[in-house]
Specification:
With 459 residues, the protein is an alpha/beta fold. The protein has helices at 34-43, 63-70, 151-168, 197-203, 205-208, 211-221, 229-238, 253-261, 272-277, 293-300, 314-325, 340-344, 357-366, 378-381, 417-428; strands at residues 2-8, 13-20, 23-27, 46-51, 73-77, 87-89, 94-97, 100-106, 115-120, 126-132, 175-177, 265-268, 284-285, 307-311, 334-337, 354-355, 372-374, 385-386, 390-391, 408-412, 432-436, 453-454. It has three domains: 2-238, Ribonuclease Z/Hydroxyacylglutathione hydrolase-like (Metallo-beta-lactamase, Chain A, 4-Layer Sandwich), CATH 3.60.15.10; 253-344, Rhodanese-like domain (Oxidized Rhodanese, domain 1, 3-Layer(aba) Sandwich), CATH 3.40.250; 354-458, Rhodanese-like domain (Oxidized Rhodanese, domain 1), CATH 3.40.250. The strands form five sheets. It has a six-stranded mixed β-sheet, covered by helices on one side. Helix 2 links the parallel strand 4 (46-51) and strand 5. The radius of gyration is 24 Å and the shape is globular.
Length: 459
Amino acid sequence: MQIDIIETTGLGDRSYLISSDGVGVVIDPQRDIDRVLALAEKRTVRIALVAETHLHNDYWSGGLELARTVGAEYAVPAGDTVAFQRVPATDGDVLEAGPMRFRVMHTPGHTHHHVSYVLTGTDGAVQAVFTGGSMLYGATGRTDLVGPEHTDELTHAQYHSVRRLADELPAGTPVFPTHGFGSFCSATPTSGDSSTVGEQVQVNPALTQDEQTFVDQLIAGLTAIPAWYAHMGPGNAAGPAPVDLSMPELVHPEELAGRLAAGEWVIDLRSRTAFAAGHLPGALNFELAITNFVTYVGWLVPWGAPLTLIGETEQQVADARRELVRIGIDRLAGAAIGSVEELAAGRELDTHPVSDFAGLAAAMAADPDLVVLDARRDDERAGGGVRGSRHIPIHDLPGRLDELPAGDVWAYCGSGYRASIAASMLARAGRRPVLVDGGYGDPDTGAAAAGLHVQPATV
């Protein structure tokens, strides 16, 4: 049997194509199904079954469209209420595709009806387990995505689900999770690129801790939920519309200027340093080349708000559109393509300075009242920050800009990515930002190296 991994690094997820004897099975496909179809063609397999481990909370699935496109059966956990025909996957069921058998295991925790799929051959020998958001690599899926009133119950269920997998499967069974490669669906950071059930017995908190310790630590460690997650479960239950990857309508410089003047969401996809060197006034910088792009666009742009992209090339815009449709951002207001000078059409560009933590240290020494913004999440801030900095997580910044005084504001985060988004928001609001472009925790150039890191009690 061949197991192919389809990475979606922008969301920290994996989908899988399992194939044998010309037959293929796809588990937890992303919405841009052309990648799956191309891989199936490469493997010369006919997709006979598409299976979901759960109704996803971090992306719109391509499962329904894929199954309809290739004429495959579509398996979804039996307990989930959906608006389309599916094969209800129930604990103990065995789904067949060619010589492959997939035994359904109910593994609640990430959601109430979550299942895992145990792959065997016709001889019954276990080949692998596909665990979705239950057993991850050194962690488990988070348990607070279907509502805070269910978190305690689901966390206890997650503990028992992971233990059931460990109890019922051979130690050498390869584990193939959907989440855990930077995904916010992971309760805690994961480690490693592959694992087995036996390896997880040694390192997974659900298998090394007693139940109450696991529950208490998982719940205490849960971080903010990205805003777009609220729309993913309902969209998957309704059945996402067929994906559209066509180029958005082109916007000419005059129309672009009007949208910027009206305060619409206009996103510049270029690098943070290129943006700082010159950008259209009012544009916001979400750097496409970084894997965080779709996370923070989805988190910050209000659902359904008109969104216009600025890209240097058609490919850059096409890549951004592909990322966005994965979380249901389908109807773009348009795109402007070309150099920023061409798109400015003679209008003056805005700029802002770029520095590093050493530069920030020097500036703070010269001006003790310097305004410094920490755009990291609460869990990051809990480990300390720049002394005297004002902590406003980037996802809260649009509603809290008035907490920052007029004038110069130095912005930093964990890498410079969110700081650049913050700088562009500050500029649009009339502040004068300085981008601190660097890793907060970098041992050579970060905050500590510059003498700026202080513990939480003294931040």
